[in-house]
Amino acid sequence: MTNTPTIISFDGATTAVIQVRSTYDKLKDEIASKLEELAAIVKAQEIELSGPFFVRYHRMDEDCLYYEVGVMTKTPVQEEQKVLSSVIPAYKRVARVTHKGSYEKLPDTWKAFFQWIEEEKLSRNPEAAWECYVVTPGMTSNPEEWVTEIYNPIGD
Description:
CATH superfamily: Regulatory factor, effector binding domain
Radius of gyration: 15 Å
Strand order of the largest sheet: 1-6-8-7-3-4-2-5
Helix content: 10-25%
Number of helices: 2
Structural class: alpha+beta
Number of strands: 8
Oligomer: single chain
């Protein structure tokens, strides 16, 4: 982990998403492909963004992931092709940690983050966790400058 996790509140967000079912070995390519597809549709609709692109995980089976690739928007997107209008609901308590560096090390940050939540005796919701891409390869080619924020709603 790049920093010590913190507990915040999350006000919720309107989003445009593409729902995905993928195997672990195809995750990286699927995310990149769907982010490009989503960005093109949001741009074509001239939707104003209110936050970064993200991946929100809904279910992680042994051999398959169910997630959505999305972006936070100021207004709902007009649904077309695979793009749906959605929301990330408001949460009173969300654990957040920042990962700085290459995406290859991101699974290690997730693991340490979940371990921290467990050590703090917090109850997590693994089917509502998400990661936001704050500084991306499109902004800088140096992987050491990439910034990803990881969020997981926790119980009271």
